[in-house]
Amino acid sequence: MKLVNRIITFVLVVALLFTGMGTTVEKVLNDVKLGLDLQGGFEVLYEVESLVDGQKITPQVLTDTTTALNGRINEFGVSEPSIQVEGEDRIRVQLAGLDDQSSARELLSSTANLTFRDVNDNILLDGTDLKEGGANASFDQQNLPIVTLTLKDAAKFAEVTQKVMSMGAPNNLLVVWLDFEEGVDSYAAESQKPPADQKFQSAASVTQVLNTTDVMISGNFTVDETKQFASVLNAGSLPVKLTEIFSTSVGAQFGADALKDTVFAGIVGVLLIFLFMLLYYRLPGFISIITLSVFTYLVLIVFNGINAVLTLPGIAAIVLGIGMAVDANILTAERIREELRVGHTVKDAFKLGSKSSLTAIIDAQLTTLLAAVVLFYFGTSSVKGFATTLIISILLSFVTAVWGSRMLQGLLVNSGYFNNPAWFGISKSKQHNLEEGITSLDLSTKFDKINFVENRKKFYALSTIILVAGIIVLSVFKLNLGIDFSQGTRVEIGAEQVLTKQEVVDYLDEIGFANEDVVISGDDKKTAVTRYKVDFSQQEVIDFKAAISEKYGQEPSLSTVSATVGKELAANAIKALALAALGIIIYVAVRFEWRMGLGAIISLLHDVFFIVVIFSMLRLEVDITFIAAVLTIVGYSINDTIVTFDRIRENIDRAGVITSKQELALIVNKSLRQTMGRSVNTVLTVIVVVVALIFLGAPSIQNFSIALLIGLVTGMYSSICIAAQVWYSLKVREMNKKGTAVVKKEKKQWGSDEPQV
After folding, report:
1. Which of 97, 434, 630, 750 is buried most, with the most CB atoms less than 10 Å from its CB?
2. What H or E segment, with its residue span, contains residue 531?
3. Average pLDDT of the segment spanning 721-735
4. Which pLDDT score is estimated for 434?
5. pLDDT-derived band of residue 210, with 50, 70 and 90 as boundaries?
6. How remote is the C-alpha of 71 from its chain's centroid?
7. Binning pLDDT at 50, 70 and 90, where does residue 365 land?
8. Strand order in the sheet with 145-150
């Protein structure tokens, strides 16, 4: 029976989705907050130090200092600056879209300087005379907002007020300044300006001697202004020093070019995925194109909703998230195709395939989510942004690639108009009759000639050779550690004309920053990259950028990392990998068994080691985004492994009891052959995106993309040739030692199998 109302419902739902997206997508894109690597700007991590012996850096000190920094940033008109306290004595500042980076850096790190002066600009009191935390927002007797101060010495204040009062009206004013610049600022000049533009904070008349520690500053304040002013005064009264221990700055032109290139690469990669899905999977592929479009739109909606900042690695995470959502669609489509080949009708195959694929999808994506959470917790800056985007992508893929795809596909399947298996890429000749009693375990595959178990020793030998060769390579070449994990300054110079190495070397020597280590990069040879083994001081950064900008017409991108931060980043990276591996092995052991968990971790270590060796051989720079790539591969690799183990477990359940290693080998081989097609297709779709990012994306994420490409290939190999084989070897050993059989183990189902349509 054919139900046209299902088709009408499908058309209406899709029309509503795309109409909604089409009418709002421009606003959504405009609302996306771009990171400094996509629009220019700078990020700096300050270490807060006291300039007074015995002064402790307390949380209140850090809070008040961030308030003072925010007030200074307002002078530059930066929209939505990011100022965050990190740890016990650090403050991270991110300013995207800032043109005058040098002036901003200079102003931000200058010590907050609170002074009380007369109208002739003579200093009477300074921040050291104010009691720590002595500024508070309050109200006077008329309930008007004021700021109250608590001084250390009443007698000194009495002396000051006596001096000011004796100057007589209209000069008997006590002027409060913050960051007064000698030789530049003056009360005489500022008093002629409108009140809103005056640089001093307050100018109060003194008509009597005040022998007290309590001072009241009144003016035309709002409640919020008094709160901010109190915090600024507190920060000014605390003689702190801000020392740069990490910084990175990106020229506006670099940011614009990076955004354009990476978005273009992403679009090309995604379109190729869409084409493959449509041609290979037919109807499920068409549905996946719809849901993947919705998925991308929803990622941006959620991203804007949580006020996240989109960085280059974030764009890569979105594109890779699409690849992961594709994996869920491929898993379901492959299971449906299997049920069709067994002999089920389209409706039954859709129902059974959707149900059997759900557990594998959830298990696989939960492990990837685990790696993303670890990366978010230990990551900083753009890496944390990458992890945030990846987490959003994984969660939304359940809504679109699982629930959404099944709902839309269910409408078409249950309409009765798509009963021909050809809609799913299965010809009639490949279908069996249900009466034959054929199960999916009996179906032939394109990989039937490969005996994975029989060749396991060859796989072990190959991996051992790789291990030994890798150790030799690492001992000889070592890792080309970027400044993130060591110490130093990395500079990327862009020009409007073709550059030569000698030209850049000569100019660096001319401006006092001599360096022979210059690499010309980019297809047009208009970019030069150089690295210094020392971290530049703030003034050196300002001088260097000014000289390069004057010569080449573009502000360079520059990152500098102190030795302390480099060691911390390296330690956090190792900790992140260790915790991710531990979490995965625990999860797999609980959901499956400990032998599968051990096999999964061995294969993961195999993948990570292989990536490290390749980077060592090719002398590619290992930076913080490399860790993001490695953890992403951890997620993808375990995804593949989980799908394989899930199929092994399912086939064991069908067999019931396995009493010999020959039967177990048959199960493992069958399972690997059945999942091989899905693994190849999934990896190919993601590789398409990664290759697009390598050749068309921004140079700054090229190493990131190369690490992903290596990991994707080795991940597919290790999940089939290492993880499953390790489990088989351990299982056979158990059977031989204990004389026990492998029996069916009840597995816990994940909720409902599919939406009802």
Report:
1. 630
2. strand 527-532
3. 90
4. 87
5. confident
6. 29
7. confident
8. 136-139, 145-150, 214-218
User: Could you give the 3-state DSSP secondary structure of residue 155?
Assistant: helix
Tell me the pLDDT tens digit for each residue of 570-605.
777 777 777 777 777 787 778 778 888 888 888 888
Pick the range with the lowest mean pLDDT from 15-29, 497-511, 699-713: 699-713
Beta-ladder partners of 34: 310
For residues 528 and 520, give the distance between their C-alpha atoms in angstroms, rounded to a whole number. 4
Give the C-alpha distances (Å, rounded to integers) separating 23 from 17, 211, 303, 396, 623.
10, 68, 18, 21, 40
Q: Which residues contact 461 (CB under 8 A, 6 or more apart)?
A: none
pTM for the full predicted model: 0.71
Q: Which residues, at least 6 apart from 538, have a Cβ–Cβ distance to it below 8 Å?
A: 105, 106, 109, 244
Closest of 339, 358, 414 to residue 757, by C-alpha? 414
Could you tell me if 500 and 520 are in contact, meaning their C-beta atoms sit under 8 angstroms apart? Answer: yes
Rounded CA-CA distance 349/367 in Å is: 28
CA-nearest of 560, 588, 572, 746 to 652 is 746
* pLDDT for 112: 54
Please report which helix (H) or strand (E) contains residue 44, including its range: strand 41-50
The residues, ordered by sequence, that sit 6+ positions from 182 with a Cβ below 8 Å of its Cβ are none
Directed axis angle between helix 59-73 and helix 101-109, to 10°?
150
Tokens 């990366």 correspond to: 375
Question: Hey, what are 188's tokens?
Answer: 């005489």
pLDDT > 70: percent of the chain: 89
Query: In the numeric block, which tokens belong to residue 409?
Result: 């596909």
Pull the structure tokens for residue 249: 């700055």
As a whole number of angstroms, the distance between CA 654 and CA 441 comes to 9
- Two tokens, residue 2: 């054919």
- Tell how strand 518-521 and strand 173-178 pair up: unpaired
Task: Report the alpha-carbon distance of residue 165 to residue 205 in Å, rounded.
Answer: 8
Paired tokens of 90: 């650090």
Q: Which residue has the tokens 């900042």?
A: 309
CA distance 218 to 203: 9
- The answer, yes or no, to whether residue 525 has pLDDT greater than 80, is yes
Interval 282-325: pLDDT, tens: 999 999 999 999 998 998 899 888 877 777 777 767 766 777 78
Residue 170: cis peptide before it, omega within 30 degrees of 0? yes
Question: Which residues fall within 8 angstroms of residue 647, CB to CB, at 6 or more apart?
Answer: 360, 671, 674, 675
